[in-house]
Write a structure and sequence with these properties.
- The chain has about 600 residues and is mostly beta strands.
- It has 5 domains: about 35-135, Immunoglobulins (Immunoglobulin-like), CATH 2.60.40.10; about 140-245, Immunoglobulins (Immunoglobulin-like, Sandwich), CATH 2.60.40.10; about 250-340, Immunoglobulins (Immunoglobulin-like), CATH 2.60.40; about 345-430, Immunoglobulin-like (Sandwich), CATH 2.60.40.10; about 435-515, Immunoglobulins (Immunoglobulin-like, Sandwich).
- It is built from 4 helices and 44 strands.
- Strands 31, 33, 34, 36, 37, 39, 41 and 42 form an 8-stranded mixed β-sheet that branches. The protein has a 6-stranded mixed β-sheet with strand order 1-9-8-3-4-5, with no helix packed on it. Strands 23, 24, 26, 27 and 28 form a 5-stranded antiparallel β-sheet that branches.
- The longest helix is centred in the last third of the chain and has 31 residues, at about 545-575.
- The radius of gyration is 62 Å and the shape is elongated.
- The chain starts with a helix and ends with a helix.
- Its main location: membrane.
- This is Cell surface glycoprotein MUC18.
Length: about 600
């Protein structure tokens, strides 16, 4: 037995030696080829590895080995290179005195073994393994926008990662919240690649997962790992969040704005839930006094109910009700009170106050509010604050005290909450007269418009003491303007015109004096001065014309001149002795007296 084993071993060794001596291809151990790494598009330098003592670089053949079949691509003879026809014909050249073959514009198809062979003085060859690399483009990520339900029993697609034009095929790693994901029951990763015509790879990787409610904010992204001659590298996609659907477990209510509310504010009642998508919402309102549900309203798609201008009727307890349309589970929020502060029904008594001139008047203001209101009185024309408090006392009323007053009710603890009520105070009294002109210059036999305005409460009526065509115009509820069209006659020039305004409390008159103006033409006799006002019935004195003043001055001047001339004549006759009132005359008179 031992002898037979020794014989078999001997025969086996002899057979191996014979095979090696026969030079059977592939059986002899080949040294590892030299590794050369380049990027796509660059130039690969293939250096023939003979030493000068071993090789003859003036006679070398270069081969490209593809699928174990060598193909001659380049010849070197006497230091000169010549490309063989084919795919490398225009991309090869010699460098370094013929020891290096340069391959330009490297593509992924160039990744193979190249060998150089020298048959003189004895056959020897050198093998070179060319490795080609290309960084992929930035990875793009496509999100499943339809979302994933937590009730799904199978992993659903989360996102797809695509890395284009890389070489060799990059490695993809998926991350959730910066933590790498691995294949398991709840996570599946499916990757595939496409070879482009350029020889580059496009990688497509799909991440599928069963998600939980906790994953609603999870950030997913993919990473491509690849190698270049410079080392290992990686590129990351952007982070995405996939919609996660889960039923609501809680519903609550929020009110905007937060804080004190008043009538007129715009209020939003927001219904919120912790489910996705949110349930279908409705809002109910409960009366604070009766605790009876008064109304229920549906919100918009965002769960918001808008009250554009809230009133006191909107106060109450509000609740949100949510119905999950998938599980048909109904939830409701805790009730929340909505309190609308208000001031309303501001009233002034008496509602239509009136009083006679010289008397006193008391106005009282009231209002309804859920707070204690504060009051103040303002004069409507000036906006001046007259009194603070619900009561306004007006003493010794004058005609000017008539008009509008405003009561304002407010709540100081609620800024901007106030309401007002306007009341009109009427002062009773005899008519008040307003003259357009106290005196008018007219022309005889001309038509003239005389105007007379009066006011009072009760509203007065106007009459004239002269005949003419009268018309009235209402100025306001307490004022009237009467216009009388008359012919200027000598009688009218003598008497003037009188208008009389009267009401139940008295009467008042105005006299208009007329003066003849023969020197003036084109006088607009209907013009009335709106600023001339009077409240008197006394007859006015006639005033001289402006021209009469000049006549008086001329007359005085003439008189002075006449007196001066007369004085000069008397003095002249006195010097000539023509006057009997001289000294001799005086003596003669004395004699006669003595006799």
């Amino acid at each position: 037995m031992v002898l037979s084993r020794l014989i078999c071993a001997f025969l086996l060794v002899a057979c191996c030696c014979c095979r090696r001596a026969a030079g059977v291809p592939g059986e002899a151990e080949q040294p590892e080829p030299e590794l050369v790494e380049v990027e796509v598009g660059s130039t690969a330098l293939l250096k023939c590895g003979f030493s000068h003592s071993q090789g003859n670089f003036s006679h070398i053949d270069w081969f490209s080995v593809h699928k174990e079949k060598p193909a001659l691509i380049f010849r070197v003879r006497q230091g000169q290179g010549q490309s063989e026809p084919g795919e490398y014909q225009h991309r090869l050249s010699l460098q370094d005195k013929g020891t290096t073959l340069a391959l330009t514009h490297v593509t992924p198809h160039d990744e193979r073994i190249f060998l150089c062979r020298d048959k003189r003085p004895r056959s020897q060859e050198h093998r070179i393994q060319l490795r080609v690399y290309k960084a992929p483009e930035e990875p793009s990520i496509q999100l499943n926008t339809l979302g994933i339900s937590v009730s799904s029993r199978e992993p659903e697609e989360v996102a797809t990662c695509v890395g284009r034009n890389g070489y060799p095929i990059p490695q993809v790693i998926w991350y959730k919240n910066r933590q790498p994901l691995k294949e398991e029951n709840r996570i599946h990763i499916q990757s595939s690649q496409i070879v482009e015509s350029s020889g580059l790879y496009t990688l497509r990787s799909v991440l599928k997962a069963q998600l939980l409610k906790e994953d609603k904010d999870a950030q997913f992204y993919c990473e491509l790992n690849y190698r270049l001659p410079s080392g290992n590298h990686m590129k990351e996609s952007r982070e995405v969040t996939v919609p996660v659907f889960y039923p609501a477990e809680k519903v609550w209510l929020e009110v905007e704005p937060v804080g004190i509310l008043k009538e007129g504010d715009r209020v939003e009642i927001r219904c919120l839930a912790d489910g996705n998508p949110p349930p279908h919402f409705s809002v109910s309102k409960q009366n604070l006094s009766t605790m009876v549900v008064e109304e229920e309203k549906t919100t918009d798609d965002n769960g918001i109910l808008v009250l554009e201008a809230v009133q006191k009727k909107h106060s109450g307890l509000y609740q949100c009700h949510g119905l999950d349309l998938e599980t048909l589970v109904s939830l409701q929020s805790d009730p929340q009170e909505l309190l609308v502060n208000y001031v309303s029904d501001v009233r002034v008594s008496p509602a239509a106050p009136e009083s006679q001139e010289g008397s006193n008047l008391t106005l009282t203001c009231e209002a309804e509010s859920n707070q204690v209101p504060e009051f103040q009185w303002l004069r409507e024309k000036t906006g001046k604050v007259l009194e603070k408090g619900p009561v306004l006392q007006l003493h010794n009323l004058k005609r000017e005290a008539g008009g509008s007053y405003r009561c304002m009710a407010s709540v100081s603890s609620v800024p901007g909450l106030n309401r007002t009520q306007l009341v009109n105070v009427t002062i009773l009294g005899p008519p008040w007269m307003a003259l357009k002109e106290r005196k008018m210059w007219v022309q005889e036999n001309a038509m003239l418009n005389l105007s007379c305005e009066a006011s009072g409460n009760p509203r007065p009526t106007i009459s004239w003491n002269v005949k003419g065509m009268a018309s009235e115009q209402d100025q306001d509820p307490q004022s009237v303007l009467s216009i009388l069209n008359v012919l200027v006659t000598p009688e009218l020039l003598e008497t003037g015109a009188e208008c009389m305004a009267s009401n139940s409390l008295g009467k008042n008159t105005t006299i208009i004096f007329l003066e003849l103006d023969s020197n003036r033409t084109g006088l607009n006799t209907s013009t009335v001065n709106p600023h001339a006002r009077a409240n008197s019935t006394s007859t006015e004195k006639k005033l001289p014309k402006p021209e009469s003043k000049g006549v008086v001055i001329v007359a005085v001047t003439v008189c002075v001149l006449v007196l001066a001339v007369l004085g000069a004549l008397l003095y002249f006759f006195y010097k000539k002795g023509k006057l009997p009132c001289g000294r001799s005359g005086k003596q003669e008179m004395e004699r006669n007296t003595s006799i």
